Amino acid sequence: MTLVDPTIFKAYDIRGFYPSQINEDTAYTIARAVAYILKSKKCVIGKDVRLGSDAVYKSLIQGFLDSGCDVDYLGEVTSDSIYFAVGKYDYDLGIAITGSHNPKEYTGLKFTKKGVVPISGASGMEDIKNASIQNLSLASQVKGTLRELDLSLEYRDFVLSFIDKSKIAPLKICVDTGNGVAGETVLSVLSQLPCIVTSIYAEKDGNFPNHLPDPQKEENTRDLKKLVVDSKSDLGVSFDGDGDRMLIIDEKGNYLSGYYLTAMLAKIALKKHPGSKILHEPRLVWAIIDTIKENGGIPVMCRAGHSFIKEKMRAENVVFGGETTGHFFYKENYYADNGVISMLLFLEMLSQERKPLSEIIEKYSNKYPFAGEFNNKVSDPDLIISQIKANYSNRGYSLDETDGITVENGREWRFNVRKSNTEPLVRLNVEGKSKEIVDAKVKEVLNLIQN
């Protein structure tokens, strides 16, 4: 009997160290358990470039084959390529073997069901966890069949369909895929446009020798910033390890927050789909809500986390949703997040605006100062959130509990404290009327959290 560590089962995925937590044996056991719970008959699997992912993929595939499930294997592909495959070809199940943006010692599994519906704690992950721990499996007299497929050109054409290629100007773009899995895909897509492309760290290397493939941490974009400025490029785009997330550097080498990028993409979405609903999460909101309303849209708020966002978008027919982390979701992409589509929409916008990105972003950075995200390790996140709620209750402030606790004082200041879905942390984000107000509120709330 294989012992499966229950702590590898997270809110949205499975994630752990290779080989101590996830290895060939656990991958096989989990595959058998997934097949047992979901009764999948046909699945599609791909992996990132991590050393652990390379080690476990054969065992994972074998677990499905031994359960009578047919497997189509796509090789090294981005997570959003898996979403595309499930959506277009109606697979029962898609699995991306990936540690996403985590350090190189990690690997993991992201699942999506038929219709590109994510599997999370409440929608099957808890059942998969229990079945894995118990080593449950489906008895099958017939083995599944394995095919190796290449959908790269189909995927390329699909993401390019989100823009009008004829409107793309010969922009100079720098790309950093952080030695993750996205390099080949991104460069293939850009080869179809008149852009002048300079790339760094496009070579796949699971050791990530240059920096972690996590663009949400600004220090990981240092080399890209320098390249953009030195090459006098129009923008830089940084992707995470599995390619479903991206963030942008302007022509001056400034790092652009996912907060402002969400507002800009909301405006783009409303030009293409006037009067539609646009989704945002509660961390930082003023720039996004104002942009949505100014452009005739309807804002919809949802707690952070891809499974919650996709569910809410489906339920309310939302055309676009964004997270400040750089995950951007599109109805026409099966409600899934996609970094390459987001990059293409920015290229189309810049081509039409005909002014520098730094000038476009000024509208947001001048009007909507913010600070965050501040991560604080705590022993009891729920207690911290309840204490903050008690501290700010009955004082004339607006309180909201969509995700953690949000406290708002008109348009003077606003902050959100929420617990991480994957770590023992509370996360603080603050926005306000001025930088001075923001800084003061950060100090005040951090003092409450830490004491």
What does this structure look like?
It is a single chain. With 451 residues, the chain is an alpha/beta fold. The chain has 4 domains: 147 residues, Alpha-D-Glucose-1,6-Bisphosphate, subunit A, domain 3 (Alpha-D-Glucose-1,6-Bisphosphate, Chain A, domain 3), CATH 3.40.120.10; 89 residues, 3-Layer(aba) Sandwich (Alpha-D-Glucose-1,6-Bisphosphate, Chain A, domain 3); 100 residues, Alpha-D-Glucose-1,6-Bisphosphate, subunit A, domain 3 (Alpha-D-Glucose-1,6-Bisphosphate, Chain A, domain 3, 3-Layer(aba) Sandwich), CATH 3.40.120; 82 residues, Alpha-D-phosphohexomutase, C-terminal domain (TATA-Binding Protein, 2-Layer Sandwich), CATH 3.30.310. 37% of the residues lie in helices and 23% in strands. The protein has 14 helices and 22 strands. Strands 1, 2, 3, 4, 5, 6 and 7 form a 7-stranded mixed β-sheet that branches. β19 and β20 form a beta hairpin.
